[in-house]
Amino acid sequence: MLGRFSFSILGQAHLTRNRGPGTFNLSQRKSHGYVPRCFVEYNASMQRSRRYDGEDRKRYEKRRRHGNKLSAQTGDGRDEHSSAAPVISGNYGRELNRLLAGIGAPAPSPFKPDSFQIEALAALEFEDVLVTAPTGSGKTWIAREEVRRLLDAGKRAWYTTPLKALTNSKYQEFGDEFGAERVGILTGDRKENSGAPLIVGTTEIYRNQLFDALRGGEEVRADLVVFDEAHYLADEDRGHVWEEAIILTPPRIRMLLLSATIGNAREFARWIEELRGVRCGVVTRPGARPVPLRAAFLMPDKRLVSLFAENGILNREIATLIDQKHEAHRLRRDWKRTK
């Protein structure tokens, strides 16, 4: 666990409501497996003025003044486009301290695995395992310890991820843990130490190796495959890759699937059992997220404020920005109709 809190900053980007109640994510794509229902777009140029000439300009300014007067200043009186950093004092200082309190590396303490981690390791001796646990609860530890056991026994493993960035991160992590000579990486951009007993790569590359082995009448050199972020199976655009990889993985290769967001884990496990003819156990970590998630919003004047108020509703300042955006859009639309 990297710290006591997971921190998310939203600002000058697309803000969308995710499937989970009351959770917001920074969305840069439309194909993340959900459809935004409450969409709020904000960027620092929302107050950006257009250049109009003559009477058109005067008419627009008159309508703007007599509408819901939009202020170019924030609550503390500073221009929202000012490049100066905000002064951390007064109410803002207290709010910022409360928002950031407790963030950082926890004090060192002896590691003690949770019961769900021990249960998952024991189950892997006899069956495939699907682990569902919140982010930050230690799913990767299960994979790392099982890989350690296999490498010490002279066996081989594959660790797949959906993203190149995550693949690079795991490659570095496992290289530090097991030694660079025992770890290789395969992505669309990198191919290093491909004969190593532990290969870290994207799920697409693993799937391609399965196809190649099937066509060539060969066997994939692995005793374990780990599917990190296994919920990508439900992704509209890429989910077929996970489906094909699961279907084509020989039953002799043990599978470990990790995810924080699979809601129908039992149903998913039964589907895997039917495909592979191998029992798939489900290990779930009960309880709340061990690493609390705090969401913040970077205001146009560079102040960092909590996304939600203490009562759980959207911060009033952010709600005001949204209203201003809508009003500016309405005025601009009305102006275009009258010119």
List the helices and strands and how they pair.
Elements: E1 6-10, E2 14-17, E3 24-26, E4 39-41, H1 54-66, H2 90-100, H3 115-123, E5 128-132, H4 139-152, E6 157-161, H5 164-178, E7 183-186, E8 191-192, E9 198-202, H6 203-216, E10 224-227, H7 239-248, E11 254-259, H8 265-276, E12 280-284, E13 293-298, E14 304-306, H9 316-338
Helix pairs in contact: 1-9, 3-4, 6-7
CATH topology of the largest domain: Rossmann fold
Number of strand elements: 14
CATH class (first level) name of the largest domain: Alpha Beta
The total domain count is 2
Alpha plus pi helix count: 9
Q: What is the makeup of the main sheet? A: 8 strands, mixed
> What separation lies between the terminal Cα atoms?
59 Å
Structural class: alpha/beta
Rounded Rg:
26 Å
Do you know the CATH architecture of the largest domain? 3-Layer(aba) Sandwich
**Mean model confidence by pLDDT:** 79
Helix proportion range: 25-40%
Textual characterization of the structure:
This protein is α/β, with parallel strands linked by helices and 339 residues long. It has two domains: 6-103 and 292-338, no CATH class; 115-284, P-loop containing nucleotide triphosphate hydrolases (Rossmann fold), CATH 3.40.50.300. Helices cover 36% and strands 18% of the residues. It contains nine helices and 14 strands. The strands form three sheets. Strands 8-7-9-6-10-11-5-12 form an eight-stranded mixed beta sheet, sandwiched between helices. Strands 1-13-14 form a three-stranded mixed beta sheet, covered by helices on one side. Strand 7 (183-186) and strand 8 form a beta hairpin. The N and C termini lie far apart (59 Å). The relative contact order is 0.18.
